Structure to design on (380 residues):
């Protein structure tokens, strides 16, 4: 009898467990970034930010519409390549994700955004700064960082007004991000009466910059701006020093990483480089960011590169909209997401405007000393 009783108890427990599992709603969050290739360190940083958010949401036991929820992260690698990016986007759409965070690059985010929009799936970018991303007339695109109009323009004004650059050279990698931020930088320079003496371009996989830098050296610029990512900026800085170029070096968020000094092979001198990150926290918000960085280091045993905190906030903004709407159905929570106002994230306050851009987005200016990033100022 005891054996039979034990079997009955076990069977009942299994049925109850199965019933509870059946009542649990699975919410799929897609994430796309380059986790292979030259900027894999940045892609992995972003993906870790997403994993951290998902793990914490599951630990909290979030409910949507009164139902217990299990969040699942579907992570894809786009290799920073537009074609691979659209393939990854279609894969997530076919997997019926409830929302997407990414992509990292503007060049992959923009073509992928059309695929998500056609499927009605919200996409929140933590790092795509090209203005076009939110200016296509799509209702599903959002971002939690300032765009290149603000970032590039601010750096251009800083080059002329603060660094006193009278002659300035500009190089870009011809990607949507690199060319876009370089164009806005040039506008900022010219707006303050600065002079662009050279405008050159390379590509995002180049390693030899001798011809470009030799041409630029002849123009004797005070400042060189590079629109692109740190994997190219590092060797570019190293080769510039080898050629005896003394100009200050500037760039956007793509070069503003902890890895840049290593990628430059020790060629960076103190305060030689000035860059900007499309985001920033001040005052009491710094405590939350420092806690995030400490928790991140403890969980993944690596330092935050740039945008992991923004990915973390983007995932949580999606979840908050679902909870408020009482549904994870994109059609039902999308209108709520669009009206996000005053969300307090680790990166600051998030409010979307009518285009899906963050209102009053901050920028943080940095330089490098002793091989480490050092904050100059937060500007809006």
């Amino acid at each position: 009898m005891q054996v039979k009783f034990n079997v009955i108890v076990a069977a009942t427990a299994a049925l109850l467990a199965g019933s509870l599992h059946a009542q649990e709603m699975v919410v799929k969050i897609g994430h796309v970034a380059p986790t292979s290739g030259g900027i894999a360190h940045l892609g992995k940083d972003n993906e870790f930010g997403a994993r951290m958010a998902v793990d914490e949401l599951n630990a909290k036991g979030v409910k949507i519409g009164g139902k217990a929820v299990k969040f699942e992260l579907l992570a894809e690698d786009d290799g920073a390549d537009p074609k691979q990016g659209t393939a990854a986007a279609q894969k997530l759409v076919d997997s019926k994700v409830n929302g997407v965070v990414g992509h990292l690059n503007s060049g992959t985010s923009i073509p992928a955004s059309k695929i998500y929009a056609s499927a009605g799936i919200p996409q929140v970018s933590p790092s795509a700064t090209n203005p076009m991303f939110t200016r296509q007339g799509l209702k599903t695109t959002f971002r939690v960082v300032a765009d290149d109009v603000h970032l590039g323009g601010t750096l251009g004004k800083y080059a002329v007004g603060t660094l006193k650059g009278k002659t300035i050279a500009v190089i870009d990698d011809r990607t949507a991000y690199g060319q876009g931020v370089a164009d806005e930088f040039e506008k900022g320079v010219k707006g303050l009466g600065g002079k662009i003496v050279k405008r050159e371009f390379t590509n995002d996989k180049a390693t030899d910059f001798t011809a470009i830098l030799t041409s630029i050296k002849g123009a004797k610029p005070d400042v060189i701006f590079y629109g692109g990512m740190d994997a190219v900026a590092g060797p570019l800085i190293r080769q510039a020093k080898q050629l005896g170029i003394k100009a200050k070096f500037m760039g956007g968020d793509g070069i503003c990483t902890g890895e840049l000094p290593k990628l430059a092979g020790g060629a960076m001198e103190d305060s030689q480089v000035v860059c900007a990150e499309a985001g920033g926290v001040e005052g009491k918000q710094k405590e939350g960011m420092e806690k995030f960085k400490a928790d991140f280091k403890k969980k993944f045993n690596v330092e935050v590169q740039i945008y992991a905190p923004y990915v973390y906030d983007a995932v949580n903004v999606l979840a908050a909209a679902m909870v408020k709407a009482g549904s994870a159905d994109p059609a039902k929570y999308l209108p709520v997401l669009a009206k996000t106002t005053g969300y307090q994230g680790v990166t600051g306050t998030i409010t979307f405007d009518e285009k899906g851009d963050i209102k009053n987005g901050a920028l943080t200016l940095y330089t490098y000393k002793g091989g480490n990033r050092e904050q100059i100022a937060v500007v809006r």
Notes: The domain at 5-145+285-360 is CATH 3.40.50.2300 (Rossmann fold). Residues 2-23 form the longest helix (22 residues).
